[in-house]
Amino acid sequence: MRAFTDCHVHFRQDRMAGMVIPYSARCCERVVAMPNTDPPIHSAEEVRAWHAMYQQLAGRCCDVRMTAKLLPRTTPQDVREVAATGLAVGYKLYPAGATTNSDDGIPAEWIDSPPDRLMGVVQAISDCGLALLHHGEHPHEFCMLREDRYLLFMELLYRSFPKLRMTLEHATTEAGVAFAEARADRVLATITPHHLLLTLDDVVGDRIKPDHFCKPIAKRPRDRAALRRAAGTHAALGSDSAPHPQESKYWDRGCAGIFNAPVLAEVVRMLELPESFTRLNAARFYGLPETTGRQLEFSEGPWCPGRKCGDVTPFMWDRPMPHGQVWSILYRNHEGRIGPRRIVPLHIWWGQNQYHSPNQWLLTAHDLDKRATRTFATANVIEWLHMR
Ligand SMILES: [Zn+2]
Question: N or C: which end of the chain has fewer CB within 10 A?
């Protein structure tokens, strides 16, 4: 199986970024980072600064591409400056209030009836050759119908801007993937691993499962079947890996978002998703060079990510996978010696030990060459997936 392009990932910020980025870097050769950080990634200067931070944490084997957040105050000049960085694939449109950190997004009224101001900015996005990425949910609609209603807005833009390329991020419905397929010349649907696995029953069908709660919400079995068909043809992988600490997930206003990066490679393998979905369709849509398609290596036996990654619960933590990915890393040990290591991770945690202080992200893993459990400092990993 070849390394992926992940078209949709939340790398977050501060300490959290140091924990989540290695999980993507170990199996992705290219990622598209989302801009709904706090503060948001909006200006050209912010795109450059966040890119530098993310790229450094991801290492040189993972090509980090950026998005800028479309805000009501965004101007055509902002768009031209962001395009000139050469680091962004497009703008991300969040309807205000649709999901985490989106209160500053585009008002619902603008989606029903786009003002000239918004249309002028979309024209600039099209003229600059950037894509417009949609969180495709109309926030004033019933939650099961939000995506369907949002497609009316996408259709309007598709007709109004004959060169504009758009994505329907994390498509969840039969109508959503059919919309993209019928306009595949300029529209791409991205699909998450969790929407390929879950239906609404897995969220609220029995007892409530906060770990399965995300936006858009998982839908009907027939929608899931349509997503699986689309993953075999025109769609692209966008994990929407979105970590939240357990304390903000498990309370009476729990956050939407599923942290699936720790099991991304394992789920793709388990579902036997094709390379067109995991890598090739994204490069074609964004007009980017194909990634090298480095091979990923897997362990023989079953593997489980464990209950906690840092203070986040990963997706499928209680469901053993048939195989776990072997991480190949170039590592500097506490004596300063650099060498390749092959490990199967057990968990990443914040703390210190006799070799590594002060407090930092430590990775406890099974070292396949030494046949022992060892703890590694993530800061001493020189490459997460070094060249073979
Ligand atoms: Zn997202």
Answer: C
